[in-house]
């Protein structure tokens, strides 16, 4: 069965600093037409930092769209043409002051495939050595460390709600 949709036309509705919003007209597999609203994003990288004593470093920060303070793995926007691993290393350094030579690629996730083309590449960093964080000027973070056991409890109790964080942590368990 053919499930593909074919774009007929596209209209740019918004062109911002982080996202673009388009409204496309598509042909459906049955021949009918429909519209698709798509948020275009350069993508991002996230990294699960684990110290040599097995502690996971997370950042607590306010997330405006949810009006909530979330606990997350370090992550950031991928710049156009930037190497994803370099982005992850940069975010590790900026957000938790971490450094390591031990980085494993955990793959790509599609956070919301119903309306955005955003892809997040996730990495695992082991034997992380901590220094001073150097967050962006508009970034306000609190660095916290947890055991993997505590993190599993926090995921189960819904204290950790961020999708990339949950996926990154769960994928990390099989690599440790």
CATH superfamily of the largest domain: Nucleoside Triphosphate Pyrophosphohydrolase
Helix-and-strand structural type: alpha+beta
| Whole-angstrom Rg | 18 Å
Q: Give the terminus-to-terminus CA distance.
A: 40 Å
Biggest sheet record: 5 strands, mixed
CATH architecture name of the largest domain = Alpha-Beta Complex
**Helix content bin:** 10-25%
Low-confidence stretches: none
User: What is the CATH topology assignment of the largest domain?
Assistant: Nucleoside Triphosphate Pyrophosphohydrolase
Name the overall outline: elongated
Average of pLDDT:
96
What does this protein look like?
There is one protein chain. The protein has 3 helices and 11 strands. It is an alpha+beta fold and 176 residues long. It folds into 2 domains: 6-41; 44-173, Nucleoside Triphosphate Pyrophosphohydrolase (Alpha-Beta Complex). The model has no long low-confidence stretch (mean pLDDT 96).
Descriptive key words:
three-stranded antiparallel β-sheet; 176 residues; Nucleoside Triphosphate Pyrophosphohydrolase; five-stranded mixed β-sheet
Layout of SSEs?
Layout: E1 6-15, E2 19-27, E3 33-41, E4 44-51, E5 56-63, E6 68-72, E7 75-77, H1 84-96, E8 98-99, E9 102-109, E10 120-130, E11 142-146, H2 148-156, H3 163-173
Parallel strand pairs: 4-10
Antiparallel strand pairs: 1-2, 2-3, 4-7, 5-6, 5-11, 8-10, 9-10
